[in-house]
Specification:
Strand content: under 5%
Helix content: 55-70%
Distance between the termini: 56 Å
Low-confidence stretches: 1-13
Shape: extended
Radius of gyration: 26 Å
Order of helices and strands: HHHHHHHHEEHEEHHH
Oligomer: single chain
Length: about 260
């Protein structure tokens, strides 16, 4: 029989789960991207509506340099420099790497939205936030919910000397295999993708958590009637006054005397 003192640690271990090492490397790359990124095809289609066919290639290269230049330094190094000239030929590898990042990010975003649907469904039905209930909700969802999965299914498709495909699974799919997708979330404040060590976690960091709690507090106060709101603010002012009185002031003569005696 286990000691009762060990039970809280066991419960905490069931509720929290550290991020797997392989998935951590993936999220370090894709977690810093933003949802406004577009693949090269969408960018070129938008430019073709505004410019003539002779100007599209030049404007497309300018736009790609601007977009890639705003990305983190390590991602710029991965994509590589963009060269002047025929962009589709000279920059084919760089465009492929950029598109791979965009589609992978959209794939992770779809997974995070599924996770949000699962958590919302559990809270709507007043069910406990645990892995067993989350799996039941996922089992009831439509299985055709990942439209960008075929875009990144195969990382490489080289043909061998025998004329056969020697395919390699995309590293993102390999890292996600057999992992709990309900822990992949979108931060409610900054929009970055992160791993939720706790199932009820909604933000990626302490800073975003503080902002999120402040937003919830302000939303709660807006819904209160005026009488309750005034009472709440009065209690906060009393607590603030007590903290100021308990904290010694720098210009207090007693504090200066004590420091001089030391």
């Amino acid at each position: 029989m286990n000691d009762k003192r060990d039970q809280p640690e066991q419960i905490k271990h069931r509720r929290t789960r550290p991020i797997p090492a392989g998935l951590k490397k993936i999220l370090d790359w894709f977690g810093v991207l933003t949802s406004d990124l577009q693949p090269t095809r969408e960018i070129k289609d938008e430019l073709s509506e505004r410019y003539s066919p002779s100007e599209v290639d030049q404007e497309f290269l300018k736009e790609m340099k601007r977009v890639v230049g705003q990305l983190p330094r390590k991602i710029q190094c991965y994509i590589g420099p963009l060269q002047e000239g025929n962009s589709s030929r000279l920059n084919g590898r760089a465009f492929w790497r950029y598109n791979d990042l965009v589609y992978s990010f959209r794939f992770l975003t779809d997974i995070a939205l599924i996770s949000h649907m699962v958590i919302s469904e559990l809270r709507k039905n007043s069910q406990a936030l645990n892995e067993e209930n989350a799996k039941k909700v996922i089992a009831s969802l439509d299985k055709e919910f990942l439209p960008y999965a075929p875009q990144i299914a195969f990382y490489k498709l080289p043909i061998t000397e025998e004329g056969k495909f020697d395919w390699t699974l995309h590293p993102l799919l390999g890292a996600l295999q057999n992992e709990d997708i309900t822990r992949i979330r979108i931060c409610a404040i900054c929009g970055h993708i992160f791993w939720a060590g706790r199932l009820d976690k909604t933000t990626c960091s302490k800073k975003c958590g503080q902002v999120h709690r402040k937003h919830k507090q302000r939303a709660y106060l807006k819904e209160l009637p005026d009488e309750k709101k005034n009472q709440y603010n009065a209690e906060r002012r009393k607590k603030r006054k007590k903290r100021r009185e308990a904290k010694p002031r720098i210009n207090d003569p007693q504090t200066i005397t004590m420091k001089g005696e030391d």
